[in-house]
């Protein structure tokens, strides 16, 4: 198979001229958030590895982190976040989820990730890291 075929929502995106506030914001966050070095490195040691016993592999850490931040930025509950990922292409793209080949993390998975961050006191560190980075660029997030 050659390149990816454009789905309907991708086509919509390429034909839409005006960027929404959400798209602008997420594009900006994509640029400024220190994804790999700072954040992934912070969580990686605590994140479950794929078990040898089989079962479903965990979602990519980057995806879960992005979903966590989306949840914070838009004040969404776990069920609302799951719904947003199903309904909002912009959020799905930001999270790195491809609707055709990827499963969307359900609310339980989202909650579990949140608990993992809380248990290891990573939530505040993530928030601080992101905020420090944003402040350096003249932006900031409210708690």
Task: Tell me about this structure.
The structure is a single chain. This protein is mostly helical and 143 residues long. The protein has one domain (20-48, 58-136). The chain has eight helices and no strands. Helix 3 runs antiparallel to helix 8, helix 5 (78-87) packs across helix 6 (89-95) and helix 5 (78-87) packs across helix 7 (107-119). The radius of gyration is 16 Å and the shape is globular.
In short:
By secondary structure, the protein is mainly α.
Q: Compute the number of strand runs.
A: 0
Count up the domains. 1
Distance between the termini: 46 Å
The SS-based structural class is: mainly alpha
Beta content = under 5%
Instruction: Write down the overall geometry.
Output: globular
Regions with pLDDT < 50 over 5+ consecutive residues? none
Question: From N to C, what is the helix and strand string?
Answer: HHHHHHHH
Largest sheet: none
Mean pLDDT: 83
Radius of gyration: 16 Å
Q: Helical element count?
A: 8
Helix content: 55-70%
Question: What topology does this entry show?
Answer:
Elements: H1 8-15, H2 21-32, H3 35-43, H4 61-73, H5 78-87, H6 89-95, H7 107-119, H8 122-136
């Amino acid at each position: 198979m050659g390149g990816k075929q454009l789905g309907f929502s991708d086509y919509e995106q390429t034909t839409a001229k005006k960027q929404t506030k959400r798209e602008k914001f997420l594009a900006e966050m994509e640029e400024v958030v220190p994804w790999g070095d700072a954040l992934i490195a912070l969580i990686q040691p605590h994140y479950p590895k794929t078990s040898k016993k089989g079962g479903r592999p965990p979602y990519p850490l980057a995806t879960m982190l992005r979903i966590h931040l989306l949840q914070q930025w838009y004040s969404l509950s776990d069920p609302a976040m799951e719904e947003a990922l199903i309904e909002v292409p912009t959020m799905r793209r930001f999270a790195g989820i491809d609707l055709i080949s990827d499963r969307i993390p359900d609310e339980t998975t989202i909650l579990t990730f949140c608990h993992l961050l809380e248990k290891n006191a990573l939530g505040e560190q993530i928030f601080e890291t992101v905020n420090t980075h944003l402040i350096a660029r003249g932006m900031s997030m409210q708690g």
